[in-house]
UniProtKB/TrEMBL annotation:
One of its GO terms (biological process) is L-leucine biosynthetic process. It is an enzyme of class 1 (oxidoreductase). PANTHER family: 3-ISOPROPYLMALATE DEHYDROGENASE. The gene is LOC105057764. This is 3-isopropylmalate dehydrogenase. Belongs to the isocitrate and isopropylmalate dehydrogenases family. Residues 44-393 form the Isopropylmalate dehydrogenase-like domain. Pathway: Amino-acid biosynthesis; L-leucine biosynthesis; L-leucine from 3-methyl-2-oxobutanoate: step 3/4. Pfam families: Iso_dh. Its EC number is 1.1.1.85. The keyword Metal-binding applies.
Length: 407
């Protein structure tokens, strides 16, 4: 099994496979015989359905996680907690203390989506988005991995020409707990002309840059060995330090080819020639924007999962699409991004590679069998809703032959 940090680890780096409570169950009351079959591995997963289509897609992903896990001898203990607008309505805040506590105690967190028109006019501390940012900060999940791969089955869904889109396979590594999203000072004020102002601070420390850069180098070396660091070092001091630190770290990763690009150019190059990119590392706000752009190369944001991980605690796994309130509750949502997030949860959160592969293989098989939700429909394919898509993926999970450990 390939850990991202499988090679030499001269520094403390991200433990992407925390073996916390996911150990085989110990035999507390009975003596284990040496010949006993392997005990099931048991993990606790906090489920945060959230708002809009969140509950629908999470419910599908949870079932698939359970079944794929059971084929690998894994048991899950699920605990569902409110977050976002749902939490504002039920408890009065977007991230209740109990929700953060449950998330921190668990082995991994699966989130649906947050937000909706209903809460758009709320004050900042009562916005669903604030709950998500508090959750990321509370879990310390500073590294956000957002893959954007164009699947052969869906190449026609891309708005780019086939020859540009075909074969695109990018991983955006976004810094998630620093930069302008969290920097101080921030707020509203008045300038010396008496004009109202709003201000934020883009700030990064060397250690914050180093830790995200190390994750990105490690991700890149497990992929095609190319890392592009995106910044605005021609203008911003925070970016100048970013570029300096990333360049310094490159000597530790001589097997990775590092390049730098200004963010405006990167936005253009992603559309012009996306295949030039393998792994991209960037700050919080540039990562927010570029990962949405990269996702659209693939044709459907409804297909893309994400993983947010910390140095040692539980990771947060969520689809990158939002809560889509316009189609919520209509059984139209594409659950595959959340299903694939469950696969990332298994791989990056629990180190359960085989179970992750089961889910990913089942998703590909389901697409090969022609099932499509509305966002990825094309001629001659079968249009299905969220639930049915989940049932078809489950059928594929169930029909898989045992995967060998070498897979
Ligand atoms: C994302 C979203 C969030 C962000 C919002 C909902 C706070 O756009 O996960 O990309 O800006 O990080
Ligand atoms: Mg975003």
């Amino acid at each position: 099994m390939a850990a991202l940090h499988a090679k030499v680890r001269p520094f403390k780096t991200l433990d992407l496979y925390p073996k916390r409570s996911g150990h085989p169950r110990t035999c507390a009351r009975f003596r284990c015989s040496a010949a006993a079959p392997p005990r099931p591995r048991s993990y606790s997963v906090t489920i945060l359905p959230g708002d809009g289509i969140g509950p629908e897609v999470v419910s599908v992903a949870k079932d698939i996680l359970s079944v794929a896990g059971s084929h690998e001898g894994i048991e899950f203990r699920f605990r569902e907690m409110p977050v976002g607008g749902a939490a504002i309505d039920s408890v009065g805040v977007p991230l209740p203390e109990e929700t953060l506590a449950a998330a921190k105690e668990s082995d991994a967190v699966l989130l649906g989506a947050i937000g909706g028109y209903k809460w758009d006019g709320n004050e900042k501390h009562l916005k669903p988005e604030t709950g998500l940012l508090q959750l990321r900060a509370g879990l310390g999940v500073f590294a956000n991995l957002r893959p954007a791969a164009v699947l052969p089955q869906l190449v026609d869904s891309s708005t780019l020409k086939k020859e540009v889109a075909e074969g695109v396979d990018i991983m955006v590594v976004r810094e998630l707990t620093g930069g302008i999203y969290f920097g101080k000072p921030r707020g509203f004020g008045t300038n010396d002309k008496g004009d109202n102002t709003g201000f934020n601070t883009e700030v990064y420390s060397a250690s914050e840059i180093d830790r995200i850069a190390r994750v990105a180098f490690e991700v890149a070396r497990k992929r095609r060995g190319k890392l592009c660091s995106v910044d605005k070092a021609n203008v911003l001091e925070a970016s100048m330090l970013w570029r300096k630190r990333v360049t310094m770290l490159a000597s530790e990763f001589s097997d990775v080819q590092l390049s730098h690009m200004y963010v405006d150019n990167a936005a253009m190059q992603l559309i012009r020639d996306p295949k030039q990119f393998d792994t991209i590392v960037t700050n919080n706000i540039f990562g927010d924007i570029l990962s949405d752009e990269a996702s659209m190369l693939t044709g459907s944001i409804g297909m893309l999962p994400s993983a947010s991980v910390s140095e040692s605690g539980p990771g947060l796994f969520e689809p990158i699409h939002g809560s889509a309130p316009d189609i919520a509750g209509q059984d139209k949502a594409n659950p595959l991004a959340t299903v694939l997030s469950a696969a990332m949860l298994l791989r990056y959160g629990l180190g359960e590679e085989n179970a992750a592969k089961r889910i990913e293989t089942a998703v590909m098989e389901t697409l090969n069998r022609g099932f499509r939700t509305g966002d990825i429909i094309s001629p001659r394919m079968t249009l299905v809703g969220c639930k049915r898509m989940g049932e078809e993926v489950l059928k594929s999970v169930d029909s898989q032959k045992a995967l060998t450990a070498s897979l």
